[in-house]
Write a structure and sequence with these properties.
This protein has a single domain (12-193), classed as 2-Layer Sandwich (Nucleotidyltransferase, domain 5), CATH 3.30.420.10. The protein contains seven helices and five strands; from the N terminus they run ββαβααββαααα. The protein has helices at residues 51-64, 75-81, 83-96, 131-154, 160-163, 169-178, 190-193; strands at residues 12-18, 27-33, 67-73, 104-108, 120-123. A five-stranded mixed β-sheet has the order 3-2-1-4-5, with helices on both faces. The chain is globular. Mean pLDDT is 93; it is low at 190-198.
Length: 198
């Protein structure tokens, strides 16, 4: 069972993103505030779960969360500000549209930019430690997967229904064969993408 809270008696929002390592498509982020009584033994890092379990948990989280929000930034913004900055901004956007203001943000990973004077703590592999971050990881991933599934209908040759825009051999072979679409990221250089600037 993951931890229910980081700081007791505090309104905490777990935040996570999906799509950071992709060659195509947007980055999605979610922010989730769970009730202190929330329990679900299946809840875990979305990458550790089957699609069926993720989809079931998404319904449960969206039904029972005190507040939840999902935001996305498209590939043109990612190309402009790089994927690390886009991931952080997407998490901030998700926090902005919560209908309840959190008192503490639990951020998956090790980088974040302070937002609206709300204290935050970065937790490496937090989606496998805290329920609210795990819930955010599930919402970010399921909403993004749904988006990429719809895009697949327009561009079936890249098989985004399967790879969701990640750099699989099949996806890279399709780029070599067909070129890129308007949904591909044009600046995917790892060193550039990890530059942290505001």
């Amino acid at each position: 069972m993951l931890k229910a809270w980081y700081k007791k008696n505090t309104v905490e929002a777990g935040c996570d993103e999906a799509g950071r390592g992709c060659l195509a498509g947007p980055v999605f982020a979610a922010a989730v505030i769970l009730p202190s009584t929330y329990k679900n033994e299946q809840l875990n890092d979305s990458k550790q779960l089957s699609k069926k379990t993720r989809d079931q948990l998404r319904v449960d989280i969206e039904k029972n969360a005190l507040s939840w929000a999902v935001a996305m930034l498209d590939n043109t913004v990612i190309d402009e500000i790089n994927i690390l900055n886009a991931s952080i901004r997407a998490m901030q956007e998700a926090v902005k549209i919560l209908n309840k203001k959190p008192e503490l943000l639990l951020i998956d990973g090790n980088r974040f930019k302070p937002y609206e004077n709300i204290p935050h703590v970065c937790i490496i592999k937090g989606d496998g430690k805290y329920m609210s971050i795990a819930a955010a990881s599930i919402l970010a991933k399921t909403h993004r997967d749904e988006y990429m599934l719809n895009l697949h209908e327009q561009f079936p040759q890249y098989n985004w229904a399967q790879n969701k825009g990640y750099p699989t051999r099949e996806h890279k072979d399709a780029i070599n064969r067909y070129g890129i679409t308007s949904f591909h990221r044009k600046s995917f250089n790892l060193n550039e993408q990890l530059r942290f600037n505001f």
